[in-house]
Amino acid sequence: MVAEQRTALITGGMGGLGEVIARTLHDAGHRVLVTYSPGNDHAPTWLSEQAADGYKFSAYAVDVADDVSCQAMVEKIHADGHRIDILVNNAGTTRDGTFRKMSKVNWDAVLRTNLDSVFNVTRPLLDGMLERGWGRIINISSINGNKGQFGQTNYSAAKAGMHGFTKALAQEVARKGVTVNTVSPGYLSTKMVTAVPEDVLGQIVAGIPVGRLGKPEEIAGLIAFIASAAGAFMTGSNVSMNGGQHMY
User: Fold this and answer.
1) Coiled coil: which residue ranges (predicted)?
2) What domain count does the chain have?
3) Residues 6 or more apart whose Cβ sits within 8 Å of residue 41
4) Phi/psi zone of residue 133: left (φ > 0), alpha (ψ -120 to 50 degrees), beta?
5) 60 has catalytic annotation
């Protein structure tokens, strides 16, 4: 158990990396809340499955791309008696395509979900952290926000923007006991990645010096450290964990 139990909110916490982050922070002794898209009808089943494994989570439906929806979610969280100490901005989406063929709809969808969401969710939670003099804001970016990626101008721009947000906000709140950091994972062994054609997956792995995909548990372990008391001196950082695929 941690010295003091904190409450964590993880956006997009019901699948892939988000689920592993939720479990890891729960294992660290924290109370964990997750968000899911309003159209996700699997939330009750997911919560039951997690509970059967010993993980008691609370879940909140929200459209992270919509500021009003996020405000309503935070009001519900507070009404339920929770005060968020640790925020992991993990929700994201992709709409890949070369720039010449990219529609404004697909550009906006990715920027709103991946970048606007960071403002929408962080803003109504920040004052509480500042008042209590303790907080951890952790933004999940991507290797492609650092190096770019063919066919992902929208995604790469949004993920790079997340770290610009991190660096600016970190300076504003550093003396108030709140840290703001970015974590930029490389390619992980999630269902989305492992579902790509075998030849494409082989090319991805061939480009990773350690010779394998990353494990979500490795990223989650890093996040648990940043969220801990031991991570208090780290702020404004972009921590890459990508198996050496992109070094800078």
Assistant:
1) none
2) 1
3) none
4) left
5) no
User: For position 21, which CATH number holds?
Assistant: 3.40.50.720
Which domain does 150 fall in, by range? 7-187+217-237
- Closest alpha carbon to 107 in 60, 70, 173, 156: 156
Q: How far apart are CA 81 and CA 240, in angstroms?
A: 35
Catalytic residue among 36, 55, 60, 155: 155
Q: How many CA atoms lie within 13 A of 202 on its CB side?
A: 3
In a domain, 2, yes or no: no
Asked if residues 142 and 158 have their Cβ atoms less than 8 Å apart, the reply is no
Taking only the tens place, the pLDDT of each residue in 120-149 is 999 999 999 999 999 999 999 999 999 998
As given in the structure block, the two tokens for residue 114 are 């991946």
CA angle, 95 then 97 then 98, to 5°: 145
2 is written with which tokens?
């941690």
Q: Which residues have CB under 8 Å from 127's CB, separation 6+? A: none
Beta bridge partners, 138, equal: 88, 181
pLDDT digits 0-9 by tens, 172-198: 999 999 999 999 999 999 887 887 789
Amino acid at 81: G
Query: 235: burial class by Cβ within 10 Å (0-12, 13-18, 19+)?
Result: buried
* 3-state SS, residue 89: strand
pTM: 0.95
